[in-house]
Amino acid sequence: MTSNLFAENLELMRVRFWAHLTMAYVFTFWTCYTLYKEYKLITSMRLRFLASQSRRPDQFTVLVRNVPPDPDESVSQHVEHFFSVNHPNHYLTHQTGFWGLWGTSVDAIDYYNAEIEKLLNKETAERERVITDTKAIIPAAFVSFKTRWGAAVCAQTQQSSNPTLWLTEWAPEPRDVYWPNLAIPFVELTIRRLLMAVLLFFLTFFFMFPIAIVQSLANLEGIEKVLPFLKPVIEIRTIKSFVQGFLPGIALKIFLIILPTILMTMSKIEGFTSLSSLERRSAGKYYLFILVNVFLGSIITGTAFQNLNALLHESASEVPVTIGVSIPMKATFFITYIMVDGWAGIAAEILRIKPLIVFHLKNAFLVKTEKDREQAMDPGSLGYATAEPRIQLYFLLGLVYSVITPFFLPFIVIFFGLSYLVFRHQIINVYNQEYESGAAFWPDVQRRVITAMVIAQLLLLGLISTMNAANSTPVLLALPVLTIWFHIYCKHRFEPAFVKFPLQDAMVKDTLERATEPNFNLKTYLQDAYIHPVFRKHGCDLPLAVADEENILVPTKRNSRMNTPGESKRGSDREDTEN
């Protein structure tokens, strides 16, 4: 009788294992199918967007860094000479950058008129000094071409036999430029990024210890041990439920408040030259951090340090097993985390309580003019560097618990439903758009979803391997292999559209514009597109360092001048660009 009961239980367990394995394949294939369709759709939309765009300065412009010094020429002359020789049929003009000219103007407050007048005079004198000082010119330039085709060839090819000189890349659109990082030399850039990688490693993995302390104290036993006099209060049923359910999530949220600022500062030190690249890099750091500390850290160090100690001393092959055993026990914590961080976060996003409080504080103590009030009411932008990695964390949680704890899924579905409604409203009606990326961030999103799938598959493998289900291991091993193959296929199939501009499309666009606007003066349109905001704001439209033959004769080693097209008024596209 006993043996028959045991056999029946064993058979039932095997059936349940195969149900989990089947659902693991179902979720994997459905996720891959959805990602493929989305990648294909976004790629098509991006190409249509680029093809249908009106004229923009960044379509014709390449950012050139690490311009080598020349004893006989200034930086501006050297740039003009190099590209006139190496791109004689397509080079048009260029603009060079200046040291240390970023910041905002001082507001005109009535009783400070005299003091402001002095500051403006000093600022004007300093600006004129910098413009005429050749030492203030940085070894970087925005080089513009006559056609999109010429810019695409330059941006996507190597310009010199020395790969560390004349570094070219697509120029960001003017409002996307992060000016302070244009002058960083190649060697210094490499050292900076190495140091930031090391710092990120220590920040990510050693931050787990304070989180472990907080997570250990944010439970009944930890609080009663540290503060024994609170035991009678903690044992009250309502308070006990709050401590067990919400306190760990709240404590974790508090620890993450200052993290985005730290990561953005690290990205700026790394030397990226556009706001979009800074946000993409910060988003990658933030996702790595929350993956290690919020997800893995909460699982391993949620209740005691001995688990972390065991993890650090066991072999790498045992890590998925250790984590797999802990995952089902942490489902309740992550459900409450979704409600505290996810649902409450979405509610706070639509209410915007923090910006409302900040506005009233500024309005009470700092606002003196209408311009001050307008700046205080500025809603800012979406904040991709933090919003996207947080959403990716919920993708990870959903994929991990979809098979292990299906009860988890309704909480995830509710979160994404609310997120879609709220963020769609905020993007359309509230936030400002700092720049236009043309969906260039999607490959990063796809890569992080793939990473989440592989992690979910490995953790499921670790969990099942502890339950005497050796026969299922080879079946599960195929999943991460197939997922990685799918990612490689999508990368080769779609990602080039996000990092390169097809020469065929550039030629079509150029040919169409020459036919429809044969008299358009592109040089006039581009000559001041990349002037630093300090100069543009004060009405100084054209620095002396701009190599524009209509205004300045730039001597070169060739002792000749390029042909200059006749002057013409700028089209309406120029107004669209400035807006």
Automatic annotation (TrEMBL):
Write out the biased-composition intervals (Basic and acidic residues): 567-579
- Which molecular function terms from Gene Ontology are attached? calcium-activated cation channel activity
Question: What InterPro entries is this protein classified in?
Answer: Csc1-like, CSC1/OSCA1-like_7TM, CSC1/OSCA1-like_cyt
Q: Which UniProt keywords apply?
A: Ion channel, Ion transport, Membrane, Transmembrane, Transmembrane helix, Transport
Source domain of life is Eukaryota
| Annotated TM spans | 17-36, 194-218, 246-265, 286-305, 393-423, 449-467, 473-490
Domain spans labelled CSC1/OSCA1-like 7TM region = 192-463
The answer on whether this UniProt entry bears the keyword Transmembrane reads yes
Residue span of region Disordered: 555-579
> Which GO cellular component terms are attached?
plasma membrane
Residue intervals of the CSC1/OSCA1-like cytosolic domain = 93-181
Q: What is this protein called?
A: CSC1-like protein At4g02900
Q: Which organism is it from?
A: Dendrobium nobile
